[in-house]
Amino acid sequence: MNLSHDLFLKQLRINQAKKKLCNTEASIGQIAKEVGFLNQFNFTRSFKNSLELSPKNYRKIYKNK
């Protein structure tokens, strides 16, 4: 694994958020805080940059699959 510490941490947070988006009814803002982002804006931007989907759209597509 040749990732920088920051990139590794970001990917870990995004992966945790993906699980929470699919398995809970928590708000996107709440999930952002739970996985360690400072606010929903930063979380949404990072999520969208990583997956090319907003957290809201990810939840719509993958929830209950």
TrEMBL record:
One Pfam assignment: HTH_18
Coiled-coil region: none
Single GO term (MF): DNA binding
PROSITE patterns with a match to the protein in the record: HTH_ARAC_FAMILY_2
SMART domains on file: HTH_ARAC (SM00342)
InterPro entries assigned to the protein according to its UniProt record, in alphabetical order: Homeodomain-like_sf, HTH_AraC, Tscrpt_reg_AraC-type_HTH
Keywords: DNA-binding, Transcription, Transcription regulation
Boundaries of every HTH araC/xylS-type domain copy: 1-61
Name of the featured protein: Helix-turn-helix domain-containing protein
